[in-house]
Amino acid sequence: MAATLWASAADRRRIGGADSSVLLVGGYDGSGNFGDVLQLAAAIETVRGLSGSPLPIAVVERETHAHHTALLERHPAQLGGAAFVHYHEGGDAEEDGLLEVEPESAPNRSALYLYGGGYVNGWWGHRKAAHADAAERLAGTGSLPVVASGLQADAETVAPDGAAHKLLSRASWIGVRDALSLEHVRAHVIGPVELCGDDSVPCLRFPPVPVEPVVNLHLNPGEWVSEDTNSVVRRIVGLLQGLGDASPHPLQLQPVIAYEDPRVSERRAVSALLEEHGEALEGAGLTPSVPVDLLADATGNELRRFRRARLTVACSYHVTLTSLLGEVPPVLLADNAYYGQKAAGLRDLFGLDRGLLGIEGRAADAAVASGAALDGSPRAELLDRLRVASGRVVERYERGRKRVASALATALRRNRLRRTLRWGRAA
To answer: Where are the domains of the chain?
Structure first.
């Protein structure tokens, strides 16, 4: 059975009544992933700022409809500017009140925007290509103009026989978020490709806050992070114990929840960590505190709770990026090539060495983490570097966002002209 797209009655009316649209395919699929939500929010803002205010239409998964609806209700300022179509691939679906959206329901004047995320790989590349194909059917027959930004790509998925090759080969402009992705795409795709950074950047810049004796703790149990979560937990605990032992003062351990939905629960993962290792951590002077919901902290509190910390220990790209832009020294554990690429990209963007980003979490790493967290010349020098580097990262991203906006505007104009000419010949 062919894949179909479904939407609420309100969104179906918005789609049918729009004069122009930009179809959004990217990291957000309706799940509660902090980074993916902010990437979509930035993409929506970019599209809404285009001349003529085209309607952003974001493709998500139908199976995540309930959680997506809850996110939309909690974050209307970030997500409410878009219409959403829910991708459904054969079989029966639960009664969810959604209505099927017929092909060619979207405006003729449309473009396809592949916004940011680490999905151009063997885990998600084929699924996102299917989302893009369904989105193009929504706008009618023929290929839509394509623009892309904020991508992390592996070599296989952009190679000539890879899932993303044909799609990216049609793009008028491609922005990637790390140097290795730049190398991969340039090797296999003909066209303008630039290093622009991550699409969540504009959602992560806030004024400084006072620093407190707090350490952020993040743990994600996803298989894309590690095939052995228990090993990651042991290494995180070892790092934290080393930091606690080195600190002359007690520290508050603040769990950070960046991915929470029925399928992936960081809250349960960190609760299990504290249940098993809490006594040892408290013995090292680290007292657990109330978890911080990172998305709520970012959208409603300028990340004040997160950014008050002296250090972030994480196994997430976006938690680490948030920490770097907030000038909170981070430690990022990398347990596979996928996360090795993420770590290398962040080191390159922020001009840092391997001491903090992409570590294994061994005893020597705890000493480096302590130097970054505790007062002294290593921390002072690192903070100065982060202040300067953060400004450069934001400037690079803003240049990229202007290129995205220009490419989308051009694509919409050319798309309208091409279709007008085609209809004129048919008449």
So the answer is: 3-203+395-426, 214-375
Nearest to 246 by CA among 100, 374, 403: 374
CA separation for the pair 416, 19 (Å, rounded): 11
Asked whether 270 and 291 are in contact (CB, 8 A), the reply is yes
Phi (first) and psi of residue 237, to 5 degrees: -60, -40
Burial class (CB in 10 A: 0-12, 13-18, 19+), 195: middle
User: Residue 423, SS3?
Assistant: helix
CATH of domain 214-375: 3.40.50.2000
Domain 3-203+395-426 class in CATH: alpha beta
Beta bridge pairs of residue 59: 85
Contact 174, 158 (CB under 8 A): no
Fold match, 3-203+395-426 / 214-375 = yes
Distance CA 152, CA 149 (A): 9
Pick the closest to residue 16 from 135, 104, 110, 143 (CA basis): 104
189 and 145 Cβ atoms separated by less than 8 Å: no
Residue 422: pLDDT band (50, 70, 90) is: very low
Confidence of residue 416 (pLDDT cuts 50, 70, 90): low
Q: How many residues does the chain have?
A: 427
b/e per residue, 361-372, with b = 16+ CB within 10 A?
A: beeebbebbbbb
Would strands 3-7 and 83-89 be described as parallel, antiparallel, or unpaired? Answer: antiparallel
Cβ atoms of residues 200 and 42 within 8 Å: yes
Residue 350 phi/psi, 5-degree rounding, is -105, 5
Q: Give tens-digit pLDDT for 239-286.
A: 999 999 999 999 999 999 999 999 899 999 999 999 999 999 999 999
Query: Facing residues of 257 across strands?
Result: 293
